[in-house]
Write a structure and sequence with these properties.
- The protein is an alpha/beta fold.
- It folds into two domains: 172 residues, Rossmann fold (3-Layer(aba) Sandwich); 206 residues, 3-Layer(aba) Sandwich (Rossmann fold).
- Strand 9 and strand 10 form a beta hairpin.
- Helix 1 packs parallel to helix 2, helix 4 packs across helix 7 and helix 9 packs across helix 13.
Length: 394
């Protein structure tokens, strides 16, 4: 799913789950939607206007009589392609169902005629109250999509149905609301992430600074676009992604084995992991004492990308090149030498990009295209790379 610059009004109700909508906002921006946040006045007790403005890059107002010269409730409604209200409290849904216009958000709802997703979150007894259920039925009858809350632990300590859904579930529901097709449906994507470690002895290893964040971003993006995703994760301290098959490895040899076992059935391979170029010739069974730790004899690891590409049939391969100086021509030669179709070249001098939430560099394709990537989130880059891969797949 790509936003292509389309406009969303994100309404935020006055519940504790308001803070979770910060993540939802970031994911919508990563998908290239433009988002204006309209919080209710009470929601500002949980997340302030400054936070929403910083995250969205847009001015935030909550009342009809702010910026009256813009007739903001009408201008926002006209500009919006979609409306998401998350979280929606029992009170907010009651007011929308009654057609009330007490604040800017409820005015926008009345003035807008666009696909709308409402995401409730509240205490289980409030959700199951007959008044709330009747309001939900009314909203659904009017054409709004109301997502059922999830079952789980709540702030009160109680457990039941009322929990704010996870961001991936909200995004999935939003896709259904706007009728977006999942452009990677039926495709298998294999991703490597993190950095391999080559043991010297039981407590020491040769490794690198890769955090795995970019590979995990690609996995999330591919999953959101309908792909069947397998992630080979090397020494990554990130939570597993629900819906993604994750294979945990440590060394280059283990990653190589996992690649060999999964590549044949893959449509797209994304080699974002940083693989150690060499490993110790000898791996001591016990810890090497300091006085004996004088030299490490190394042996070269196999080139995983070149090796796996030799078995390539119709797969699209995305490679990564982390350099301390951008060399576009050298990256093009590397891409051809290793039979990759797309290569992302980034400058990691001074430790830049590693473990960061953002990235910058160049996307280079076999047909000679060079796309400059200004500083952006790793999620946004993930979607850019997948779109290039989809183009190659035809």
């Amino acid at each position: 799913m790509q936003g292509l610059g389309r406009e969303i009004v994100l309404g935020v109700g006055g519940g504790i789950a308001a803070y979770k909508s910060c993540d939802l906002l970031r994911r919508l921006l990563d998908l290239d939607f433009k988002v204006t946040v309209v919080p209710t006045p009470s929601s500002l007790n949980f997340v302030g206007a400054a936070t929403w403005e910083a995250l969205s890059g847009r001015r935030v107002t909550t009342e009809v009589f702010q910026s009256v010269e813009e007739v903001r409730h009408v201008s926002l409604a006209k500009k919006a392609d979609f409306l998401i209200i998350a979280p929606a409290t029992a009170d907010l849904m009651a007011r929308i169902a009654a057609g009330r216009a007490d604040d800017l958000l409820t005015n926008v709802v009345l003035a807008a005629s666009v696909p709308t997703l409402i995401v409730p979150a509240m205490h289980p007894q409030m959700w199951s109250n007959p008044a709330t259920l009747e309001n939900v039925a009314t909203l659904r009858a009017r054409g709004y999509t109301v997502l059922d809350p999830e079952i789980g632990a709540l702030t009160s300590g109680d457990i039941g149905q009322g929990r704010f859904p996870s961001t991936p579930n909200i995004i999935s529901a939003f896709k259904s609301v706007i009728g977006e097709s999942e452009d990677f449906k039926g495709r298998k994507i294999l991703i490597t992430a993190g950095g391999t470690r080559e043991p010297i002895d039981p407590v020491r290893f040769i490794g690198n600074r890769s955090s795995g964040k970019q590979g995990y971003a690609v996995a999330r993006a591919a999953l959101s676009r309908g792909a069947d995703v397998t992630l080979i994760s090397a020494n990554v301290h990130l939570s597993d992604i629900p819906g993604v098959e994750t294979i945990k490895v440590e060394t280059a040899a283990q990653m190589h084995q996992a690649l060999n076992e999964n590549f044949a059935a893959t449509n797209v391979l994304v080699m974002s992991a940083a693989v150690a170029d060499a490993r110790p010739l000898h791996n001591a069974d016990g810890k090497i004492r300091k006085k004996d730790f004088t030299a490490i004899e190394l042996i070269e690891n196999p080139d995983l990308l070149a090796s796996i590409a030799a078995a390539k049939t119709s797969q699209v391969i995305i490679a990564f090149a982390a350099e301390t100086k951008l060399d576009t021509e050298g990256a093009k030669e590397k891409m051809v030498r290793k039979s990759a179709d797309i290569l992302y070249l980034n400058d990691v001098s001074g430790g830049d990009i590693f473990n960061s939430e953002t990235t910058h560099g160049q996307i280079i394709t076999r047909d000679g295209k060079v796309i400059e990537v200004a500083e952006t989130t790793k999620d946004t880059l993930a979607h850019q790379l997948l779109s290039e891969a989809l183009h190659k797949l035809g």
